[in-house]
Design goal:
InterPro entries: RelE/ParE_toxin (IPR007712), RelE/ParE_toxin_dom_sf (IPR035093). It comes from Escherichia coli. Keywords: Toxin-antitoxin system. This is Type II toxin-antitoxin system RelE/ParE family toxin. About 0% of the residues lie in helices and about 60% in strands. Strand 1 and strand 2 form a beta hairpin. It has about 40 residues and is an all-beta fold. The chain is built from no helices and three strands. The protein has a three-stranded antiparallel beta sheet with strand order 1-2-3, with no helix packed on it. The chain is elongated and about 35 Å long. The termini are close together.
């Protein structure tokens, strides 16, 4: 997804998030297990 970032928080989990630099906030969009497919 455009505008999102990913962070590996554990070998089996990836955190998909978005940063709002105007307001200084981070929005967590999804916690994804690495066995699942992500578009």
């Amino acid at each position: 997804m455009e505008g999102t970032r990913e962070l590996v928080i554990h070998p089996h989990f990836v955190l998909v998030y978005e940063v709002d630099s105007q307001w200084g906030k981070v929005y967590v969009l999804r916690v994804l297990h690495t066995a699942q497919k992500w578009p």
